[in-house]
Amino acid sequence: MENQEKKTFYITTPIYYPSDRLHIGHTYCTVAADTMARYKRLQGYEVMFLTGTDEHGQKIEDKAKEAGVTPKEFVDNIVEGPRGVLDLWKLMNISNDRFIRTTDDYHELSVQKIFKKLYEKGDIYKGKYVGKYCKPCESFWTETQLVDGKCPDCGRPVVDAEEEAYFFRLSKYAGRIQDLLENTDFLQPRSRVHEMVNNFIKPGLEDLCVSRTSFSWGVPVDFDPKHVVYVWIDALSNYINALGYENGKYHDFDKFWPADVHFVGKEIVRFHSIIWPAILMALDLPLPKHVYGHGWLLLDGGKMSKSKGNVVDPYVLAERYGVDALRYFLLREFPFGSDGNFSNEALINRINIDLANDLGNLLSRSVSMVEKYFGGTLPAEREADPMDEDLVGMISSLRAKYEEQMEQYAFQNALTEVFKVISRTNKYIDETAPWALGKDESKKARLASVLYNLLESLRVCGALLSPFMPQSAEKIAEQIGASKEEMSYESAGRYGVLPADVTVHKGATLFPRIDLQKELAELEAQHAAKEPQLPKYEGVATLIDIEQFGKVDLRVAQIKECVSVKRAKKLLKLQLDDGFAGGRQVVSGIAPWYKPEDLIGKKVIIAANLQPVKLCGEESSGMILATDLPDGNVQVIFVDDSVPNGSKLR
Ligand code: MSP
Question: What is the pTM of this model?
Fold first, then answer.
């Protein structure tokens, strides 16, 4: 490669929604992309590794409102704030070259220009978006999103409605996209092609709604500013905008586009393998070489949620077990293309067996023996033996096998190949019994050969593990006395690179063993104690004066009866004694957290002068006060029994 222009490699992750803190599932794809980026750099490529955040849309707007801050303040906190997205990538040793936020000025400018270009070309046109509308929530829903024909958020009836919107002529590109998916290796793994073609293309691709007027947190369409660009043109174009497409911020579009690969989770494969190529075709731009749809990390076979007993906070995991161990586990435990079950137990087992036992022990035994028998520096005399051939052969051919797997993004298989050599090397120690050779003065040259082979195995394995575990690879190099050059990709393809009289430096244990039972018990105890977590947002709502506050009539009321509401899983119907004759009925969305029988007799606070509403057909006069807990649960505010029913709060 020296005499040619440097080859380039452009890799991306999806841009993450900063609507909540990221969990280990989000970390998975970023670690995989980072490993690929490091691998390509090791091979000598000039790499562009892009990640970022997808910050617009109704959900963020709603969450910000709930937190009483502006949408920008809300996303800034999750992206740049303490323990936010940027902090997490730093902690995980993510080597991205660029980070794009869809609220960056240059990105917004590009989105507007792309939208206009497509409009002028006739690939975007104005039409009507028809759907179901919930007036109180101001939200559009599709038929399939409704719950029992009602608004999935509040349970109230919806009406047929339409709003003016712009559409992208996706249907026009159906034939070309089908051809791309079926007849090229654009979408990987191959198993995902069938679903895309049969479920989405064959039934007929409809044009795509690409603007909205029902919310405002988005990039305005500059020639029709009551519209904001809706989701996919904004989100997907980040991959070209981050290279300077239609903006003056960067200037390496020609150098890096088309991307070599977009890594994406399986649920967004559809957008990346159908909508994205269609947008690029409409813009007359080359298509990315590959889209790789990886699987999901699951908890007990289901979606990740914080309430299931396993710790999924990447901060906690990295701090407890080390960044490299966590990175290794993610890519070793699960085949990248398929779903996998995450558990703390599997993680600890991997650390103990592969890292502490197989790799860590090999390193410490090898270095210790060089120190013990030769004072740390091997002598130059050698005595080879036919019994070395198998190991030496494996060391020499490892890089080719590893590369074959890495080129297919088969991280798990690449690691398996490396660990086959590590196991073989441990077996070689048993076969050659260096401790016996060490007792015999005439066997010194033979012993030196054996120990040299151990160090060579560690060198090649360490170099090839470096994209996965960068810090540990450096420690291995340091302990076995290998220089940067000796750890290079080129050197990893050969046996016999370390100098004959290499000097080792014993260091700390790479991966300490973890007591599985003790650790699981500790995690369990922590979980039960509900580890204090950061509040979601510390800002308070917009200031009001005392007069405005006085308008809210807060009262103490006692729950007399409580039953669940048919056809509304979230709702409970409560009869309250509010100090007035007859009492009142309130319907509250607390069913996921309370059983009716646990509430009867309890005293609560109600907002007593709220306009009565009907929720799922039941009259509700007022609202029970409750709070969101950091773990996602809801807690009703209970009042001491001594406070009379009907007491007014002030
Ligand atoms: N903003 C969009 C992507 C736009 S890309 C132009 C988005 N964001 S997301 O934050 O919801 O998800 C980001 C990525 O995280 C997706 O690829 C998704 O598949 C991945 N994951 C979220 N939970 C996951 C697991 N439990 N396991 C593995 N990946 C998962 O979608």
Answer: 0.81
